[in-house]
Amino acid sequence: MDDVTRAQLVAVAVEKGYIIEDAEVALHPELTKTIIKRDWTGSDLGKRAALVNAAKGNSPFACVDLTEEDVAEMTEDYEDLHKASAVSTADYKAARIKLKARTPPSSEGFMLMLKRYTNLQFALFSSQSPMYVQMYGIVRALRDYSPNARTKLTHEVKTCILWIILLQARRFSQGKMKGQNACLGEFTNMVNLIKAKNCETITHVEVPTELLAPTANKRTTMDSTNKGTGTEGGGDETGGKKKKT
């Protein structure tokens, strides 16, 4: 059986297994490869997850918002990359950037990512999967929030929620989600805070800075450039700062 046939079988199986409507999972090449090879940990073998692997394996960050055209383009690039006789480091880096872990900026996008990930757990591991049970509970709890309350979720809170889910998913993928210590302490605490509608206090000290504040590196670079040109703070040439609009 060739790779194309395997990919088609995976797509059919996953699409039949959705439990939540209007939350289809985009089966991009990396996710399809994960399912075929059963690489659920995404190369994360230790207790901690690495940012470079965050969108790989069984991960909420793998359930990105992609159009059919996006998936088709990524599939074509993936095939070209593996058929090429010579591939540079830049080529691999460009491919990784397309699947870089990102937190959806809107509350709707955030909820959609959680729903898609819940669907993925159901399709891959059945309704008896402990990870699916936990994810379905999280989605139901957030559904009880008013639309206004969900829009108040900050980028930091949403990122911490997704990162904690990733850590728990890695634990599940390593076969450790069993017994009294099935869930990580931070995961249990997060679920309780979500159910208590107290999300603003959710945090995690191990969330990568780049993911928590994606504009931090860009801002640091801009500040350094501005200092060299005498325009620190993004102001005009006289050093005056621009007013917020």
Structural notes for this entry:
The protein is mainly α. Helices cover 55% and strands 0% of the residues. The chain has eleven helices and no strands. The longest helix has 19 residues. The C terminus is likely disordered.
What is the gist of this entry?
It is built from eleven helices and no strands.
What topology does this entry show?
Blueprint: H1 3-16, H2 29-37, H3 68-83, H4 89-98, H5 107-125, H6 130-143, H7 147-151, H8 155-173, H9 185-195, H10 209-212, H11 216-229
Helix pairs in contact: 1-2, 3-4, 5-6
Top keywords for this entry?
245 residues; mainly alpha; 0% strand; disordered C terminus
Largest sheet: none
- Succession of helices and strands: HHHHHHHHHHH
Number of strands: 0
Shape: globular
| Amino- and carboxy-terminal Cα gap | 59 Å
Give the number of helices: 11
Low-confidence stretches: 217-222, 231-245
Give the helix/strand class.
mainly alpha
Give average pLDDT, whole number. Answer: 82
Radius of gyration over all CA atoms, rounded: 20 Å
User: How much of the residues is beta strand, in percent?
Assistant: under 5%
How much helical structure, as a percent, in the residues?
55-70%
Oligomerization: single chain
